[in-house]
Amino acid sequence: MFRVSSLIFLAATLTLPLSGQDPRPRGLSGSVKAGVYTSPTGAYSIEIPVLASLGGVVSDTPNVATFQDNFGLQVSVAAFAHDATQKWELSTRGTKDYLVYFLGTFVLPDFRSACPKTSVESAAFLPDVVDGSVLAYILMPGGSMFELQDSFSRPSAPPVAKRGNLLFVKNGFTFVISSELSERVTEGSSYKKTVQEEDQILRTRLLGIVKKMQFPSPATPAK
């Protein structure tokens, strides 16, 4: 059975602090070398997007890697290999409809398992990003991974977290890159960004992560 799990609150096997030199990746499912994380499946490599000087850490499971620092940057990169059903869904639906289906069938239920009131604020198809991607912004009441810095401005109700999610298909894997807009929570009552400004921040952040990724070349069919 195809499963998507732990996209948000990872039950990671290890949280590995970064240092000036690469730490030994003992306990990680993937590997770290020369500032680059490689997934255990080999589906992708990525220049680690957090800095040791800012308290950067990397944690992972077999399917999901999370990068986080002490200054509000948190990004998860998930890669799910296609089984026979997903291959069929992709071939019959096409890229755009498949990604919408994947978002609604797997990603949102996973978020809702941690935050039942999760909803999609908006979504768009980006045809020129990784051969076609879906960018979705979701709202999660009480689902933030960050705490308010100013206890005096803490609201009576939990803050509504906002996450950007970029979905695309590459080399037989569905990728889900997700990041919370931490400023929405940590800045408390001083936060004044518009929805459009929030969307642009998250879009820029997610596309920046894609630029740091490398994918293996597809195998050349034998003649």
Describe the structure.
The structure is a single chain. This protein has 223 residues and is an alpha+beta fold. It has one domain (15-214): Protein Transport Mog1p, Chain A. The protein contains four helices and twelve strands. Strands 1-5-6-7-11-10-9-8 form an eight-stranded antiparallel β-sheet, with helices on both faces. The chain has a four-stranded antiparallel β-sheet with strand order 2-3-4-12. A hairpin with a 5-residue loop joins strand 6 and strand 7. Helix 1 (84-93) packs across helix 2 (95-114). The longest helix is centred in the middle third of the chain and has 20 residues, at 95-114. It is globular and about 50 Å long. The two termini are 34 Å apart.
Determine the fraction of residues in helical runs and give it as a percent range. Answer: 10-25%
- Per CATH, the architecture is 3-Layer(aba) Sandwich
Could you say which overall geometry the principal axes of the C-alpha atoms support?
A: globular
**Topology as a string of helices (H) and strands (E):** EEEEEEEHHEEEEHHE
> In percent, how much strand structure appears in the residues?
25-35%
Q: What is the number of beta strands?
A: 12
- Mind telling me the CATH class? Alpha Beta
What kind of oligomer do you see?
single chain
Domain count: the total is: 1
Q: How many strands, what sense, and barrel or not for the largest sheet?
A: 8 strands, antiparallel
Rounded mean pLDDT score: 84
Which structural class do you get from the secondary structure elements?
alpha+beta
